[in-house]
TrEMBL record:
<dbReference type="InterPro" id="IPR010982">
    <property type="entry name" value="Lambda_DNA-bd_dom_sf"/>
</dbReference>
<dbReference type="Pfam" id="PF01381">
    <property type="entry name" value="HTH_3"/>
</dbReference>
<dbReference type="InterPro" id="IPR001387">
    <property type="entry name" value="Cro/C1-type_HTH"/>
</dbReference>
<keyword id="KW-0238">DNA-binding</keyword>
<protein>
    <submittedName>
        <fullName>Transcriptional regulator, Hth-3 family</fullName>
    </submittedName>
</protein>
<dbReference type="GO" id="GO:0003677">
    <property type="term" value="F:DNA binding"/>
</dbReference>
<feature type="domain" description="HTH cro/C1-type">
    <location>
        <begin position="5"/>
        <end position="59"/>
    </location>
</feature>
Length: 68
């Protein structure tokens, strides 16, 4: 899974720490999400998308291999 969190976070001039605080997780969670090393819950994905004024589909990019 790839994400565009870093790109959208930059558009909103948010640090990883600031985004983490907004969505109620640790900064490390945002780091792992941006690196594609953590699969968020649907609730967390929604919270992040909402804070970045986008949709889950725009923020998270799934490939067929991710679904296997």
């Amino acid at each position: 899974m790839k994400t565009r969190i870093k790109e959208f976070r930059a558009r909103h001039d948010l640090t990883q720490e600031a985004l983490a605080n907004l969505v109620g997780v640790r900064r490390e969670t945002i780091v792992f999400l941006e690196k594609g090393k953590y699969n968020p819950s649907l609730k967390l994905a929604y919270r992040i998308a909402r804070e970045l004024d986008t949709t889950i589909d725009e923020l998270f990019i799934f490939e067929n291999s991710d679904l296997e």
